[in-house]
Amino acid sequence: MDGYIEIVEFELGGEHYALDIHLVREIVEMKPITEIPRTPPYIKGIMNLRGEITTILSLNHLLSIPDISDGGRKIIVLVPEASQGSNVGMIVDDVHSVMHVLESNIDLSREGYGDEVANYLRGIIKIRKEGIEEEETARLVLWLDMKRLLENFFANAQRT
User: Fold this and answer.
1) Interatomic CA distance for residues 64 and 72, integer angstroms
2) Alpha-helix residue ranges (DSSP H) falling in the chain
3) End-to-end alpha-carbon separation of the chain, Å?
4) 36, 55 in Cβ contact below 8 A?
5) How far is CA 38 from CA 43, 44, 91, 137, 138, in A?
6) CB within 8 A of 34, min separation 6: which ones?
7) Would you say 144 and 19 are in contact if contact means Cβ atoms under 8 Å apart?
8) How far apart are CA 148 and CA 44, in angstroms?
9) What is d(CA 136, CA 132) in angstroms, rounded to the nearest whole number?
10) Which of 49, 50, 82, 94 fits a 20 to 30 Å CA distance from 31?
11) Contact 49/89 with Cβ under 8 angstroms?
């Protein structure tokens, strides 16, 4: 019997992405962000979230995805363990659901996408249509390795 993984599915640039639920502390509506001058474009600024200063990153910029949102965005706040002890939130266009996904519905192959993609992609999740043939896929969701993506981000930030 297959095991399950639990993910948060979200939208960014019109595509669906996922990250492991255990990395998420909370999901909040977009709030005012204080910009910090002379920071890279992927650092949108900081915000006071329940008394804690939280750095807000643009996942669009980190992944080189065009920003096509028309507002109504959300912030996924990560647990500090996912971001080297820092309080970090990421702006996404929308959060769709928390899901249990069968491991057999995940393609773990990262070949053919290039080394840069392999640095942050854990796999591709095939979301099946309810009540349709087993081979019928409703959509594909890119499962991000958020911990690795943020490790690369912090490593690059320390070099600059």
Assistant:
1) 21
2) 59-63, 115-118, 146-159
3) 48
4) no
5) 10, 11, 19, 44, 43
6) 45, 46, 47
7) yes
8) 20
9) 6
10) 82
11) yes
CA 42 – CA 62 distance, rounded (Å): 6
Q: SS3 of 118, please? A: helix
H-helix or E-strand spanning residue 65:
none
CA distance 116 to 60: 15
- State the DSSP code for 93: S
Query: pLDDT per residue over 117-159, tens digit each?
Result: 677 899 999 987 765 555 666 789 999 999 888 887 777 666 6
pLDDT digit string (tens) for 100-119?
Answer: 999 999 998 766 666 666 77
Residue 69, SS3 per DSSP: coil
pTM: 0.85
Spatial contact of 9 and 21, defined as CB atoms under 8 Å apart = no
CA 125, CA 139: separation in Å to the nearest integer? 8
